[in-house]
Specification:
heterodimer; A: 518 residues; alpha+beta; Methylamine Dehydrogenase, Chain H; 2 domains; four-stranded antiparallel sheet; 10 helices; 23% helix; 31% strand; elongated; disordered C terminus; B: 830 residues; five-stranded mixed sheet; globular; ubl conjugation (chain B); isopeptide bond (chain B)
Chain lengths: 518, 830
């Protein structure tokens, strides 16, 4: 026969953001550490090698921070003017940066003075990057040119003059040492091949391009400019895969999560959006205090560093996993106990008897199953239940009422127990979703305990509190009705065509209640 | 071709199974229960109906096995006859005509050829237990008029009569009395509960009685839930009783197990309680049986119990209190609020079933297919408790969606309302909950309908409520990157001058929605949800509303409470015609333009079938039943009939079923009910009708062998014969590859001749024959289950004699030849 059906727990939709595995993942960071820089933070770059230090470019300085340090562990300040785009080499030992005066400087992480200086650009160099073979540097500048430099002899190898406006962003392919892309204010993103002296292909972004990003596989290209983030399929010759318009100000920076499953974009609208790279839907979004200029994620998404226009660097560290408390494990039967007889094949005359699978029941359900109604109510009136999950308590009260035993369950309680019930009522009575059930319970309590009122000051105080609450609620409902009446009047004066009548919400018959106890 | 008979109203299926105690056959293989005018024979193992014993012309009121022949069954009926049946073949053996209306039937082995029946005296509410002498005669119909009174002034229910201790006495209860009549002494003793008579609200009147099969002990059940065990009742002074109390409500039935060691009781709690050794503390329970236990019975073999429940169900329970089979009829327990519907997938009739369930009932096989649990909450069976009621249900999108509404109202202001939407899952072949809407409206939902247009791309549901709104719900995509999901959301809320919405209905193509607000019908465009037009006849609130179909799709029909049927033309927006008809049920036929309307008149209900285009009805049948018809539905036929007469053409493609207020399901048919209800009568093997218990396997086999051996020794001529497979000639034939065999014509003659008996050899070979046979038989009985072997042997008995001879002639011919060569002359010398 059918087994016991557990009591139905009413679920209420959670308003606001849905809880998904992404929101859980991206919310699992500690409160951000704020570091004040000298100027707007234009670039943050993590070293690809442990200990995953990161270089922050702000004003004319480059600071290198350790993972948990709030003070820079190293500073490069040999810039005459604003520095741009300090970028680590793949091995984490060299750092290259452009500057406002058109110079490109190469630093050793350990040293202080630049190892190399590449002179050739006539205007500010906003983007530099190492190629995949580690021996060349690509730079793009406001003089519309893109140059390729050789590190060993600090010579310019090639110059590309295909852009017709400032080149503000670029990215070298991680797989092919000859390929890199640059984005420019002429609305195009171009891919260059050093073997051909010219661009291989060009895509039209539509807005001045602020940031470009190549996927690790090299097949997809992401460009950001204006309010748009666009994803291009390079293997199809630069076909637009998807155009994302989720920011309402210019998107300034792009970043991939370490798994490559999520794409992050930061914008002047002070938001960082996280996209899934399979569906390109926004799965999460962060808010910051100021417009975002730069964004970087550490290895394994351990840290999110965001640089803003007001010079604040916001560093968020992932919460460490709660250690599984290693309680002394109960000694369990040996493995062979479990597999004993499992391989036995059924013979002809055997009758197979399956052990019925045991259904897990909550404690209150076990009590309800055995008709211990007061006990079931006691269980859900435990503070752990009433605070965290009041809907369970309310559902059980409702279930008891359905069974017609609520009065029995509420009766015969001492001072401590009844004050616990009253506390719960006081806290939740005014919530519209619980009101109908709890008003009924309150009525029953008043009926039961009316004769003994005055015997316990604690309970009396609770009753008075409840009375005050009910009166307040009545006043509130009255006010609501008045407001509704006024609004009706306003609507009536607006004599629109009366095809669809205005939806009227008669306020909850919350309070036709209460003979007042005193 | 169907002959042009007159169309009759016939009762179709769904008769009660729980009217009287079910009865087990002696081997516990079958269970018998009364069902209207029939007795149904069910198999306890497969739950299938094996036979329907038809013959009574009125309600069957009692059945019992013939105590002298356990292959026969007695039944009695209101038509005043007692019939004796051979239930294995389903044959009526004899009919005894008593003449009175018989209310119950009892028989026991010690009252030789008389049986006991309850008949009614002239006075109302007074019944007598009389014994009827059944005359011995060979004729089919016998008058049995020799009645003698046993007990007077008893209760009509057979639960209140019990025969005890091998028929020495009979116990009867009524109100506050327990009367015991001793057959030998011919004396009646009467016992009352001392405290009961004078107290005003004493609730301990007797409800049922049972007698211990071995001892002098009577168990009685009482209305306050107590069970009393009476002993020493042959003495008017020194009688004693003990009390068992577990039930909190009335004890509905009691039964002792065959040996008398345990007592079974049941009641409204739907818990079967087994009292072991008549002790309060030795109790076993089988809880959650679903509905009030009405009757309990025990199989004569003692291995099974069965309980009959108020929801028209019989549960077969194993000795160790495990339910082993459920025989479920059409549940008629609750009031039907959902109306009748047809599941588009299974073509099953769908209506309220058990509390909080929707039942799917197959009309063809008169069998419940399954129950869908809608409320999904523990059912507390308690008198006066306000339960959650399933009030509305509707199928949509070819059976892919099911919408249900449940409500519970304790006080006027406290209404709990829940709408659930279920999707049909192909994987599990059942409905799965998709969306749950709490309080979809602020007041009762009066109507629920899906848009069932062929080409509608998005499922749409409309609910109308007394709060003055109707709501349109649509299926929306609720999927995100993590999962695919669909859910229902409210798309539009409409109202009309704060009138209560009473009905809603979609047109056939789904382009228009008609919603009636009390007296006014509003037509809405289903694309834009704009109000198109209104119709108002000022003839009372609209009770039914439906669009015409096919060629009549431009008409809208409305029936009002003041007894006016209106038909509006949607193109001209004018009233086409109206008629004065007090309509209770109005149902459109899904396969044609026809609309069936059942109206209520002072004498009964009348049926009108008409097309919306014409005010003149196609067919009228006055007085289809005396009661008020509550619901009706057209069921599409699997195979269209072809009535040529114009009046019956509306029955060609669909059948009209309707449910009356007393919840009998009726339909129109030209066939006789016997034809309609042809059971899947399987030919039962006339097997041994004694149970095969483990003991039987151990001992019976030995005994059988011994029997056989003794038989053999006694009569040597009796030839035990092997199975056909064991004849070497045949097995050789079967196992030789076909390409090496000679032609079939050649083999045929050989095979036939092998079956022939050669007479001259037989007498000569008696002794070797015998030896051989013994071996043969032993190999048998060890290898196979006894009864099977035996049966086959019996069947083959006739023609196998020859085979042996054949076998012998082959194997021992040489030996025989040797015998011939031996010189027997020395015998003569002796």
């Amino acid at each position: 026969m059918a087994g016991y059906k557990p009591a139905a727990i009413q679920t209420y939709p959670i308003l606001g953001e849905k809880i998904t595995q992404d929101t859980l993942y991206w919310n699992n960071y500690k409160t951000p550490v704020q570091i004040k820089e000298f100027g707007a933070v234009s670039k943050v770059d993590f070293s690809p090698q442990p200990p995953y230090n990161y270089a922050v470019t702000a004003s004319s300085r480059i600071h290198i921070y350790g993972r948990y340090s709030q003070e820079p562990i190293k500073t490069f300040s040999r810039f005459k003017d604003t520095a741009y785009c300090a970028t680590f080499r793949q091995d984490g030992r060299l750092l290259v940066a452009g500057s406002e005066d058109g110079g490109v400087q190469l630093f050793d992480i350990t040293g202080r003075a630049p190892l190399r200086q590449f002179e050739g650009h006539t205007k500010a160099v906003h983007t530099v990057d190492f190629t995949a073979d580690k021996y060349h540097v690509v730079s793009g500048a406001d003089d519309y040119t893109v140059k390729l430099w050789d590190i060993p002899n600090s010579k310019e190898i090639l110059t590309f003059r295909e852009h017709s406006d400032y080149v503000r962003c670029g990215c070298a392919s991680k797989l092919n040492p000859d390929l890199f892309v640059t984005g420019s204010y002429d609305h195009t993103v171009k891919m260059f091949d050093t073997r051909t002296n010219q661009s291989v292909f060009s895509v039209e972004h539509g807005q001045p391009v602020e940031s470009v990003l190549l996927f690790p596989s090299g097949g997809l290209l992401v460009s950001a400019g204006g309010r748009y983030v666009k994803v291009w399929d390079m293997l199809k010759g630069g076909q637009l895969l998807v155009s994302l318009k989720n920011h309402h100000k210019t998107v300034t920076c792009l970043c991939l999560s370490s798994s490559g499953q999520r794409l992050l974009s930061g914008s002047l609208d002070r938001k960082v959006k996280v996209y899934s790279t399979t569906s390109y839907k926004v799965v999460h979004s962060f808010d910051y205090a100021a417009s975002i200029l730069s964004l970087a994620l550490a290895h394994e998404d351990e840290t999110i560093v965001v640089g803003m226009t007001n010079g604040i660097l916001s560093v968020k560290h992932r919460k460490s996993e709660p250690k599984k408390d290693s309680l002394p494990r109960r000694r369990r039967p040996a493995y062979r106990t479990f597999i004993k007889g499992k391989s036995y094949m059924k013979q002809r005359d055997d009758i197979l008897i399956n052990r019925p699978s045991k259904k897990h029941l909550e404690l209150y359900d076990r009590d309800l199953k055995n008709f211990r109604v007061s006990k079931a109510l006691d269980r859900v009136l435990e503070p752990s239940c009433t605070v965290k999950t009041p809907e369970i308590t309310v559902s059980i009260i409702k279930e008891l009422n359905r069974r017609g035993v609520l009065a029995n369950a509420l009766a015969g309680r001492d001072e401590k127990e009844i004050s616990r019930v009253l506390n719960f009522l006081i806290r939740n009575l005014s919530q519209p979703r619980f009101a109908s059930v709890l008003i009924n319970a309150a009525e029953i309590i008043i009926d039961i305990y009316l004769p003994v009122i005055g015997q316990s000051p604690v309970v009396d105080k609770k009753f008075l509190l409840l009375q005050g609450l009910v009166e307040k609620e009545i006043d509130y409902q009255k006010e609501l009705l008045e407001t509704l009446g006024m609004m009706d009047m306003l609507f009536a004066t607006m004599t629109r065509k009366e095809s669809t009548s205005v939806l009227q919400h008669t306020p909850d018959e919350l309070l036709e209640s209460k003979k007042v106890e005193s | 071709m169907v002959e042009e008979e007159s169309v009759r109203v016939v009762r179709c299926g769904g008769s009660e199974l729980n009217f009287r105690r079910a009865v087990f056959s002696a081997d516990s293989k079958y269970i018998f229960c009364v069902s209207g005018d029939f007795v149904k024979v069910y198999s306890t193992a497969t739950e299938e109906c094996v036979h329907i014993l038809q013959g009574h012309r009125n309600l069957v009121t009692g059945i019992q096995l013939n105590p002298n022949n356990h292959l026969q069954l007695y039944s009695c009926s209101f038509d005043g006859t007692i019939k004796l049946w051979d239930y294995i073949d389903g044959i009526l053996i004899k009919t005894f005509i008593v003449g009175h209306k018989l209310h119950a039937f009892f028989a026991h082995a010690h009252a030789e050829d008389s049986v006991f029946v309850i008949i009614k005296k002239e006075k109302p509410d007074a019944f007598q237990l009389v014994s009827v002498k059944l005359p011995k005669s060979t004729s089919q119909e016998i008058e049995a008029e020799e009645l003698s009174l046993v007990l007077d002034y008893i209760n009509q229910s057979p639960k209140c009569i019990a025969f005890g201790n091998e028929g020495e006495y009979v116990a009867a209860v009524r109100d506050f009395y327990l009367s015991v009549y001793f057959f030998k002494k011919k004396k009646t003793s009467r016992f009352t509960l001392s405290s009961s008579r004078n107290r005003k609200h004493a609730k301990n009147n007797f409800t049922c009685v049972a007698c211990h099969p071995k001892e002098d002990c009577i168990a009685t059940g009482h209305e306050d839930g107590k069970i009393r065990l009476w002993r020493n009742f042959d003495d008017d002074k020194k009688y004693t009783y003990t009390c068992l109390h577990w039930h909190h409500d009335m004890v509905m039935d009691l039964a002792f197990s065959v040996t008398g060691t345990s007592l079974l009781s049941g009641g409204r709690e739907s818990v079967l309680v087994e009292w072991r050794d008549a002790a309060e503390k030795n109790k076993e329970f089988l809880p959650r049986l679903g509905a009030t236990i009405e009757h309990i019975s025990v199989s004569p073999a003692g291995d099974l119990f069965c309980t009959s429940h108020s929801d028209n169900k019989i549960i077969v329970i194993h000795r160790n209190l495990e339910a082993s089979a459920v025989i479920q009829g059409l549940v008629k327990d609750s009031s039907i609020l959902t109306g009748l519907m047809i599941d588009p997938r299974t073509k099953a009739l769908v209506l309220n079933g058990k509390p909080g369930h929707l039942q799917f009932y197959s009309l063809q096989s008169d069998k419940q297919l399954y129950n869908l649990d809608i409320v999904q909450q523990e059912y507390i069976n308690d008198y006066g408790l306000i339960q959650i009621e399933l009030t509305k249900a509707a199928f949509g999108c070819h059976g892919n969606w099911l919408a249900t509404v449940e409500q519970r109202q304790e006080k006027k202001t406290e209404l709990e309302l829940q709408m659930k939407l279920w999707t049909y899952s192909k994987k599990t072949q059942g409905f799965i909950l998709n969306t749950k809407v709490n309080m979809p409206h602020e007041d009762h939902i009066t109507a629920l309908c899906f848009c069932n247009a062929e080409n509608s791309e998005n499922p749409t549901l409309v609910t109308a409520s007394r709060d003055g709104h109707f709501k349109v719900w649509i299926l929306t995509d609720d999927s995100d990157i993590y999962k695919k999901a669909v859910g229902w959301t409210c798309d539009f809320v409409g109202s009309y001058h704060k009138y209560q919405a009473t009905n809603c209905c979609f047109s056939e193509d789904g382009s228009l929605l008609a919603v009636s607000f009390e007296e006014i019908v509003t037509i809405w465009d289903s694309e834009t949800w704009e109000l198109k037009c209104t119709f108002c006849q000022r003839a009372g609130n609209i009770r039914h509303l439906c669009f015409g179909r096919l060629t009549c799709s431009k008409y809208l029909l409305g029936a009002t409470e003041n007894g006016i049927l209106c038909c509006w033309n949607l193109l001209s927006c004018a009233l086409e015609w109206s008629a004065k008809l007090n309509i209770r049920v109005m149902e459109p036929d899904p396969n044609s333009e026809n609309v069936a309307a059942v109206s209520k008149s002072s004498v009964g209900s009348d049926l009108f079938v008409f097309k919306p285009s014409e005010p003149r009805p196609l067919y009228i049948q006055k007085n289809i039943c005396r009661e008020e018809v509550q619901w009706g539905v057209f069921v599409p036929r699997d195979v269209p009939e072809s009535f040529t007469s114009e009046a019956y053409q509306w029955l060609n493609r669909s059948q009209f079923y309707f449910l009356t207020k007393s919840q009998s399901l009726l339909t129109f048919s030209t066939k006789s009910p016997e034809e309609k209800l042809t059971p899947t009568s399987k030919q039962l093997l006339a097997e041994e009708s004694l149970p095969t218990t483990p003991f039987y396997f151990i001992l019976g086999k030995h005994r059988q062998q011994q029997d056989e051996k003794s038989n053999e020794t006694l009569e040597n001529e009796l030839v035990q014969l092997p199975l056909t497979e064991n004849i070497p000639a045949i097995s050789e034939l079967l196992h030789t590859p076909a390409h090496v065999l000679p032609s079939a014509s050649f083999l045929c003659s050989m095979f036939v001749s092998s079956l022939l008996l050669s007479k001259e050899t037989k007498s000569a070979e008696e002794i070797p024959d015998d030896i051989d046979m013994e071996e043969e038989k032993e190999s048998h009985s060890s290898g196979e289950e006894n009864d099977f072997t035996e049966k086959v042997e019996d069947i083959n008995n006739a023609d196998l004699g020859e085979d042996i001879v054949q076998q012998l002639s082959k194997s021992e011919e040489k030996e025989l030849r040797k015998f011939r060569k031996i010189d027997y002359s020395w015998i003569t010398a002796l």
